[in-house]
Write a structure and sequence with these properties.
The chain is built from 17 helices and nine strands. Helix 9 (183-198) packs parallel to helix 10 and helix 9 (183-198) packs antiparallel against helix 14 (268-282). It has helices at residues 27-38, 51-58, 66-71, 82-93, 109-112, 133-141, 160-170, 173-176, 183-198, 200-215, 220-229, 231-249, 252-265, 268-282, 285-295, 299-309, 312-323; strands spanning 4-5, 19-23, 42-47, 63-65, 75-78, 102-105, 123-129, 148-154, 178-180. It has a nine-stranded mixed beta sheet. It binds NADPH dihydro-nicotinamide-adenine-dinucleotide phosphate and magnesium ion (2 copies). NADPH dihydro-nicotinamide-adenine-dinucleotide phosphate (NDP) is lined by residues 24-29, 47-48, 50-52, 66, 79-82, 84, 88, 106-107, 128-129, 132-133.
Length: 329
């Protein structure tokens, strides 16, 4: 059975007199830092000179260089993009870590794949909200919280979990529930989910459906609505009440098609490929490729990003969304 933590399991005293440095002020950084501050914690921001620096100051935070913020903090939450964390850690964080400090992550990649190897005398903790940053902030302001995962990789202080739960409560997560996991489980399932289902799987499913209709002579605009736009309505229903509620809400004609056609599209071959994808995540092949890609200055990544932008569905979508002024940017 899974272990869950709630408000009643939190001892905020453990953070008394402590300073939290949130390193990075992007999607997760801005939301976690603001939630922690509103929860009464002492928060400072560590950044490079850049766009976020101004934003963090405008939001009323004390902003320091990454090294300076680290040297002032008891808890250092690293919310830089995963692919720059290792370098920043080596050059700015590690040399400035206070004795007995705790380092925090919101994703396990760099610890699990050994890109960051902290000294034995610090706590290494993950608190990973299960939602994008703007939602972490919005839901907190509304008085609730986005659920999170917690994992302890290293417990040097003997208090790592208490500190982790206090942090999780500060971002609002214990209002919803915090699930205990490991760095390995979070990293591997996160990578698999985004590649096979959420991002990779869904993007290709949408494109393949769109292309099939357009190649058969249907209007690209109509194909766009059917294969991309309406996906949100379906996913919202799943999010609210699972597959059953989605199927309850659609027509019986659509439900009959769901049962009869779905398995012809996502079949045993798809699942066999998913297993290979998972194996390559588990054995480090995917991580190695992504690290090397970054070291090569992202040659293949940049080319692919450009090619994807040129896809007809993106061109058509841009025009159609201009007609739909109610869709917020
Ligand atoms: P973002 O890309 O949104 O933010 C990055 C921040 O880091 C920006 O403030 C940027 O500042 C700063 N930054 C970038 N490079 C450097 C550098 N070399 N030195 C100092 N500051 C730098 O990151 P995310 O919030 O998306 O991701 C942070 C972590 O959270 C990752 O581990 C990610 O896996 C995890 N996570 C993210 C989720 C999400 O919804 N996005 C969900 C759950 C976990 P500048 O303006 O100067 O570029
Ligand atoms: Mg991810
Ligand atoms: Mg329809």
């Amino acid at each position: 059975m899974v272990t869950m933590y709630y408000e009643k399991d939190v001892n905020r005293q453990v953070m008394e007199g402590k300073t939290i440095a949130v390193i990075g002020y992007g999607s997760q950084g801005h939301s976690q830092a603001q939630n922690l501050r509103d929860s009464g914690f002492n928060v400072i921001i560590g950044l490079r000179q850049g766009r976020s620096w101004k934003q963090a100051e405008e939001d009323g935070f004390e902003v320091y260089s990454v090294g300076e913020a680290t040297s002032r903090a008891d808890v250092v939450q690293i919310l830089l993009p995963d692919e720059v964390q290792a370098k920043s850690y080596k050059e700015e964080i590690e040399p400035n870590l206070k004795k007995g400090a705790a380092i925090f992550f919101s994703h396990g990649f760099n610890i699990h794949f050994a890109q960051i190897q902290p000294p034995a005398d610090v706590d290494v903790v993950m608190v990973a909200p299960k939602g994008p940053g703007h939602l972490v902030r919005r839901v907190y302001v509304e008085g609730f919280g986005v659920p999170a995962l917690i994992a302890i990789e290293q417990d040097a202080s003997g208090q790592a979990k208490e500190i982790g739960l206090a942090y999780a409560s500060g971002i609002g997560a214990t209002r919803a529930g915090v699930i205990e996991t490991t760095f390995r489980e979070e990293t591997e399932t996160d990578l698999f989910g985004e590649q096979a289902v959420l991002c990779g799987g869904t993007s290709e499913l949408v494109k393949a459906g769109f292309e099939t209709l357009v190649e058969a002579g249907y209007k690209p605009e109509v194909a766009y609505f059917e294969c991309l736009h309406e996906l949100k309505l379906i996913v919202d229903l799943m999010y609210e009440g699972g597959l059953e509620y989605m199927r309850y809400s659609i027509s019986d004609t659509a439900e009959f098609g769901d049962y009869n056609t779905g398995k012809r599209i996502i079949n045993e071959n798809t699942k066999a490929e998913m297993k290979k994808v998972l194996a390559e995540i588990q054995d480090g092949t995917y991580a190695k490729n992504w690290i090397l890609e970054n070291q090569s200055n992202r040659a293949a990544f940049s080319a692919r990003r450009r090619i994807e932008k040129e896809h007809q569905i993106e061109q058509v979508g841009k025009q159609l969304r201009e007609m739909m002024a109610w869709i917020k940017k």
